Amino acid sequence: MSEILGKLNSQPKRTNNNKAWYLSPLRQEKTASFQVDTKTNRWHDFGEGIGGDLVDFACAYLRSTNEANTVSDALRWIKNMGVAPYEIAPVYANTNDVTKSDSALILKTKKPIQHIGLIHYLEKRGIPLHIAHQHLKEIRLHNTRTKKNFTALGFRNEEGGFELRNSFFKGCLGSKAITFIRGRNPKPDSIHLFEGFMDYLSAISQLNSRSFKGDTIVLNSLSCLKQAIPYMQNYGYRVAYSWMDNDRAGEKATVALSEFFQTEADLKHTPMNKVYAPHKDVNAWHMHQHKLTL
Which of 81, 112, 214, 269 could lock onto 183 through a cystine, CB 3.0 to 4.6 A? Predict the structure, then answer.
């Protein structure tokens, strides 16, 4: 906020702790009533009784100058002002969908999938074993909290951690992060975004085990959505396919992605939700399709 106000030739009249007071850039005034919290990067115009984040300010500023003021207009204006690259605010599917991993877990062994319980779990989710072998490992772990060992499927992320799944457990070993997967084409013009690796493996299974021509980002958590931005920003992709869940959190993530893609030149966003509706996600749709062929 302070950076963009400076570009509008507006300087604080006074500061107090983390609060900076400006003459409102939204109207004419003689007493500073426009407050910016420099810690949270949020603003409040006490004269107008409105406030919010940087995008909210851009919308309000464009409206005050009689310009088009949708969120997409605001994002383009922010980008044209040369302010820091756009970041998507994290979207949470539920209270447990956070970026923290379970510090009680210790890696004991990592090897190709052999455990019969994990193989049965993959069969239940409709994932062929040969596809699973390409992307997953069998992870043996020790839980220092319960003093017990257990085995799970491990899907590696960009921070060297693993997303963990078995029939009874869902968690993360190491840092929570996205997973980036190169497509078959060396310089692809498309990218696919999935919420979780089961959705990604389900889509690959539906393609007769062939990987995408374009690149893929598996978020591993909607809270990691903003980590995906640097992989797509100014890269030159022409089409972005999003495979978010058909629920409220997935809808919010799809909207957030749409707003970002509109700030990228010549990048078309294609939500894929209708392909697997009315099912909740790609894996639920895939399991339904798989049962029809049995």
Answer: 214
